[in-house]
Amino acid sequence: MFPFRSIIFPTDFSAHAHAALKYAAGFARAGHGRVLLLNVQDAKVPANLLTLPDYVFEEQENNWLLDLRSRAKELVADPLLDGVEVDPVFGEGDPATEISRLAFEHEVDLITVATRDRNRLARAFGKSIAEEIVAEAPCPVLALRPPQRDFVEHRGGQTEIRLNRVLLATNFRPSSAAAAQLATNISNHLGAELHAVYVIGDYFEQISSIFPEGGLAALTRFRSHVQERMAQFARSSGPKASTHIAEGRPYQEIVKLAANLDADLIVLGTAVHSSLFGNNQVLGSEIERVIRNAPCPVLCVPAARAVTPLPALVTQAV
């Protein structure tokens, strides 16, 4: 059984957001599932917007609803969704919070979202809505940043998932366990190569420079431990599994290896923490940098907060 059957496609009806639709449709078609077309507004939208009688829109204050209905109907009729069960859903409030709430309410297995490049000022003082969605979502989020390497192709009315190489970034902590299970499940299901990478952070070199004896000894022991764990992973993950060990800045090594491998998908665990400026959940800086710089889409898998009945998280062995 393919793991993604209920999928949210958040949209503001822009061409940029539309880039994620073919992934939602492709996974839903492969899993014989459905796509929830989710739009979040500042005001409440009638749940039956698409079937409301025309006289409702004759009032001037409802013109925005008429425009919204037109956009939603056009999206529902998109050829990418031919043969896929589609449910338009409208939310109200903060986009990331509302998407997370509806993902839980509808027992969603996946959210597909397109990220945007940000200028230096935006990077310094805030994060994108896509990153907020990744941080708050109770289920995996596929983050893509056009133009990137595509692994879903739609031609002649047919959508095909072409996953040849999957790169799993792991650190063997609990936060990466669900990501490892899901990457293994997807690779086995689609017959793709599975590459796992562990990046030994550059802070070990800093320790070694300060404590030449203790630091180097600790680094040597740690290298040996990582090699042993990666060998265990390779033995348990099937004949198409390969492992890689790198040293340096984690996001740089992950992005570089993905480019060298021509990886179609990066999978990583997304542990989150509370913001210093409030109660909002935020991602670690390395995860954010992988999402912003990856040459291919990134599947972000939450750890303990995964609450949907996703088979890969509860029944599949690593």
Low-confidence stretches: 119-126, 274-279, 305-318
Radius of gyration: 21 Å
Count of distinct structural domains: 1
Structural class: alpha/beta
Mean pLDDT: 84
CATH class: Alpha Beta
**Sheet with the most strands: spatial strand order:** 3-2-1-4-5-14-11-8-9-10
Query: Which descriptor suits the 3D outline?
Result: elongated
CATH architecture: 3-Layer(aba) Sandwich
CATH fold description: Rossmann fold
Task: Count the E strands.
Answer: 14
Helix percent reads 40-55%
* N-C termini distance: 16 Å
The number of helical runs is 12
Beta percentage is 15-25%
For the biggest sheet, the summary is: 10 strands, mixed
Order of helices and strands: EHHEHEHEHHEEEEHEHHEHEEEHEH
Describe the structure.
This protein has helices spanning 15-18, 21-30, 63-76, 95-105, 120-125, 129-136, 174-190, 203-210, 212-236, 250-261, 285-293, 311-314; strands at residues 6-10, 34-41, 85-92, 110-114, 141-144, 152-155, 158-161, 165-169, 193-201, 241-248, 265-269, 272-274, 281-283, 298-301. It is of the alpha/beta class and 318 residues long. The chain has one domain: Rossmann fold. It has a ten-stranded mixed β-sheet with strand order 3-2-1-4-5-14-11-8-9-10, with helices on both faces. A two-stranded antiparallel sheet has the order 6-7. Helix 3 links the parallel strand 2 (34-41) and strand 3. Residues 119-126, 274-279 and 305-318 have low confidence and may be disordered.
